[in-house]
Amino acid sequence: MSKIVDKNMEVPGKLNRQDIVWYNPLEKPFSVHGAHHNFDRLPEDFPILTSFRDNSTGVRVRFVTDSPIVAIRCTLSNRGTPTVMAPSAIGGFDLYKRNEDGSEVFAGAFRPPENCLDIGYESLLVVSSGKNCYTINLPLWSHTESLYIGIKEGSVVEEAPAYKYGGKPVVFYGSSITHGAAASRPGNTYCAMIAQKLGVDHINLGFSGNAKGEQVIADYIKDLDMSAFVLDYHHNAYDLELLKKTHYNFYKTVREKNPHLPIIMVSAPTLQRSDWVLGGVKIIKDTLRRAKKEGDQNVYFVNGCNLFKGEFKESCTSDGCHPNDLGFYKMALGIGKIVKKVLGE
Questions:
Q1: What is the mean pLDDT of residues 278-296?
Q2: Reduced to 3 DSSP states, what percent helix, strand and coil does the chain have, rounded to the nearest 5?
Q3: CB count in 10 Å sphere of residue 297
Q4: Would you put residue 79 in left (φ > 0), alpha (ψ -120 to 50) or beta?
Q5: What is the Cα–Cα distance from 103 to 98, expressed in whole angstroms?
Q6: Which whole-number Å values give the CA distances from 332 to 67, 129, 191, 204, 227, in the listed order?
Q7: Do residues 179 and 203 touch, judged by C-beta distance below 8 A?
Q8: Is the dihedral of CA 126, 128, 133, 139 positive or negative?
Q9: For residue 5, what pLDDT is reported?
């Protein structure tokens, strides 16, 4: 193990305290959001996307407490360590505090110790005084096998207030970018940022390299009880013929089951203007035009070519493809503006 010179970067991995009560967040008064069951995003027998079905990106635990500390105890199974991503995103958790208007603000990060991404660890944060509603975001690139929430002995633990819009989530489907590569921590994906700002629930169905508009996932998504749907898999349609074959059909599958649902279509966020980029924009716009010609006025388009524009536009990715925190922030502004509009904010 390498020696850490900066003491502020040391992470012990094990808490030596006797004043913590450990709770199972799968039981009341805690609530889990963004998961199909336990901390998994899809059913165990789902026929595709098996390598990322149990990644916990977008999965959250919510609760209210007056405890001066919040701790976690977790065990993880790592699904690989992409070089574009930080350990704090692959196996880290982070904490958000709810504001009075329902929006959420960052309150701290539970960072994994060195060499613990495929094992698990304990971590603790000192939080603000008084009774507060907290959200813990689970890791983006690991399977959370078990999780316990630590609260100081004698503290109150209560159920979190409901999300806006009757708790109906905004559902995001897409590529590794939707999945969260390469955010620095779980709460910094564009999907999470939009939900935090608006105070809404969300489900992240981003699957790195695997979301290609398959009919089986369209059939799954159409049955979800949603407030809005964001269709964002252009980056995984490496062949434009695949995008052309699947995009309208995906939209139509969801629309037929959800006649009043706002559907937002997004093209690949990039500064490039290649034939593949512009061809994908055209195909997605064709879906939009066809939908409107058929009488659908609740469809919207976000051109990914415009999402990184402005100052520091060349600094929005980690590798020329996957957005970093700056890139996700700009995506959250551009896509979030439409989500806010369709939700009537």
A1: 98
A2: 30, 25, 45
A3: 7
A4: alpha
A5: 6
A6: 32, 30, 7, 14, 17
A7: no
A8: negative
A9: 52
User: Are 164 and 102 within 8 A, CB to CB?
Assistant: yes
Which residue's entry shows tokens 């398959």?
214
Give the span between the Cα atoms of 34 and 212, in whole angstroms: 21
- Summarize pLDDT for 108-163 with one digit per residue, the tens: 999 999 888 888 999 999 999 999 999 999 999 999 999 999 999 999 999 999 99
Task: Work out the average pLDDT over 314-325.
Answer: 96
Task: State the number of CA atoms in the 13 A half-sphere of 311 facing the CB.
Answer: 0
* DSSP assignments along 259-280, one per residue: TT--EEEE----S---HHHHHH
- pTM to 2 decimals? 0.95
- Amino acid, single-letter form, for residue 240: L
Question: Shortest CA distance to 264 belongs to which of 217, 221, 298, 215?
Answer: 298
Residue 82 banded pLDDT, cuts 50, 70, 90: confident
